[in-house]
Design goal:
This is Pentatricopeptide repeat-containing protein. It holds the Pfam family E_motif. The protein has 98 residues and is mainly alpha-helical. The protein has a domain of 47 residues. The chain is built from five helices and no strands. Helix 1 packs across helix 2, helix 2 packs antiparallel against helix 3 and helix 3 runs antiparallel to helix 4. The chain is globular.
């Protein structure tokens, strides 16, 4: 149910994201990207990813999820850009995660 409503909400509480605990942030990211992927809302996913990257500068989650979202949207060049950005920043994806 929440996944269907998510694009409508337009992430109005994104500014308060830094006050959430880690488990809630993980849930937020998962639901956000799942909803954005389902509805093809790449722009909203970018906003979520940018905010998560600000909070976790060395985490690979947002980069990998954005790359996967770009692939699902047939935006292969942008997907490759995300992966190259990870490589430039020396951010590695943990095995079995995402």
């Amino acid at each position: 149910m929440l996944r269907r409503l998510w694009p409508i909400l337009e992430l109005s509480f994104m500014a308060k994201l830094s006050n959430l605990d880690f488990n809630l942030i993980s849930l937020y990211v998962t639901v956000s990207f799942t909803s954005c992927r389902k509805h093809g809302n790449v722009d909203l996913a970018k906003q979520v990813a940018k905010r998560i990257m600000e909070l976790d500068k060395n985490g690979s989650c947002s980069y990998v999820l954005m790359s996967n979202l770009y692939v699902a949207s047939h935006r292969f060049e942008e997907a490759m850009d995300e992966r190259l950005l990870m490589k430039e920043k020396k951010i590695e994806k943990e095995q079995g995660v995402v």
